[in-house]
Amino acid sequence: MSDRSMYDLPRWLLAIGPVLVLGVVFGLIYLTSPFSGITMGTEASTLEILWMLTIIGAVAGIIPVAIGMLWFPFIRDLNPRYLHAFMALAAGVLAFIAVEMTEDVFEHAGDAENTALALGLGVAGVAGTFAVMYLASEWRQRKMASVEKSGLEIAYLVALALGLHSIGEGLGIGTYFILDEPTQVMLLVLAFVMHNVMEGPTIVAAVARERETPPFRHFMAMGLIAGGPVILGGWIGSFGQSDLLAALFFAIAIGAILQVLIEVADLIRFDAEAVLTRINAATFSVGFVLMFLLEDVLTELVLEGWLVPG
């Protein structure tokens, strides 16, 4: 289907289409329990382990991000006021992830053999990543001939920040996989599918303000950057879970998200008189609360047996 034919579809279909696709994917995972029979066994080779974690990581990371990016044609033609609101919603999603990962940093630091070292690495990870990305952003702006911010470049930054966060997700999957706990692996996959689908529109919201739609290869690249690191995290987690390493990865992701939040605010400010409007504040809150419902509430229902896979 061409880009133009996508825009010719009814608006209501563009709005609910990704939800329908997500429902099909989630339902298939829920009903078939594809990972319920996974056992490491003593004869599993390194290559077999990496291949299975690659498949699991793609299902948990790349596929849901790609589904979320299907909202691009819908948000592409939004009134600038509502587009800014959508970007504020994306910021709310990022803010929730940053808060959640802050808890993860303290949890893993507390479980590490040297808590002080882990906390120090956490602080260094946040500050160092923020500083590097801030300096890179300043350099990029000085090199640009126009004062206008590039939505595509910021979308790549968002994808990078989410990708760093995805490594932490993969660490959990890889750890449970190596411990022969297939039920926990599938619970994490279900949770991350629900969670990561919101990362898609978070990425493309900045691109929607561009006058021309970027080539498809950019969407593929951003989806891989955001969701692919789940695979990398799974590999790392399967070969040696380290609380010290986990705390550092989460801290790096937090620093990246903080810088991205500044970029998103600047992007809105370029087109609007004010960043903090009532509608932007409302959608920011919706994004934060929505991620809480998807990540914590629904995951808790699964763990308590209310949504037990068949």
Automatic annotation (TrEMBL):
<feature type="transmembrane region" description="Helical">
    <location>
        <begin position="274"/>
        <end position="294"/>
    </location>
</feature>
<feature type="transmembrane region" description="Helical">
    <location>
        <begin position="51"/>
        <end position="75"/>
    </location>
</feature>
<feature type="transmembrane region" description="Helical">
    <location>
        <begin position="116"/>
        <end position="136"/>
    </location>
</feature>
<feature type="transmembrane region" description="Helical">
    <location>
        <begin position="185"/>
        <end position="207"/>
    </location>
</feature>
<feature type="transmembrane region" description="Helical">
    <location>
        <begin position="12"/>
        <end position="31"/>
    </location>
</feature>
<feature type="transmembrane region" description="Helical">
    <location>
        <begin position="219"/>
        <end position="238"/>
    </location>
</feature>
<feature type="transmembrane region" description="Helical">
    <location>
        <begin position="244"/>
        <end position="262"/>
    </location>
</feature>
<keyword id="KW-0812">Transmembrane</keyword>
<dbReference type="GO" id="GO:0016020">
    <property type="term" value="C:membrane"/>
</dbReference>
<keyword id="KW-0472">Membrane</keyword>
<feature type="transmembrane region" description="Helical">
    <location>
        <begin position="156"/>
        <end position="179"/>
    </location>
</feature>
<keyword id="KW-1133">Transmembrane helix</keyword>
<protein>
    <submittedName>
        <fullName>Zinc transporter</fullName>
    </submittedName>
</protein>
<feature type="transmembrane region" description="Helical">
    <location>
        <begin position="82"/>
        <end position="101"/>
    </location>
</feature>
<dbReference type="GO" id="GO:0005385">
    <property type="term" value="F:zinc ion transmembrane transporter activity"/>
</dbReference>
